[in-house]
Design goal:
There is one protein chain. With 84 residues, the chain is mainly alpha-helical. The protein has helices at 17-29, 34-47, 51-59, 67-83. The N and C termini lie far apart (49 Å). The relative contact order is 0.07.
């Protein structure tokens, strides 16, 4: 996912103090600002498809081979194995 280019500000309200403290400690441990740390994690989360998105892309994919060809090929391979 492209980290450069256009950016937009994001504001998150009502984050529990304990959560902010933990995230700040983690950012500090990596030598990062809290903003940089959160930006990195948001980019990482957005770069991976959700399960629903993955299923959608897999089921709508054109494989370039029709079902009949796949079934015939599997049967032929099974017949070869069985004849050995």
């Amino acid at each position: 996912m492209d980290e450069g280019g256009d950016t937009k500000p994001v504001h998150i309200r009502e984050v529990p103090s304990k959560v902010v403290d933990i995230l700040q400690k983690r950012a500090d441990a990596q030598g990062m600002s809290l903003t940089g740390y959160l930006r990195q994690h948001l980019i990482e989360v957005a770069s991976k498809p959700t399960m629903e998105e993955w299923i959608e892309s897999a089921t709508n994919r054109t494989w370039g081979v029709d079902r009949e060809t796949i079934v015939r090929t599997i049967r032929e391979l099974r017949d070869e194995v069985d004849s050995e």
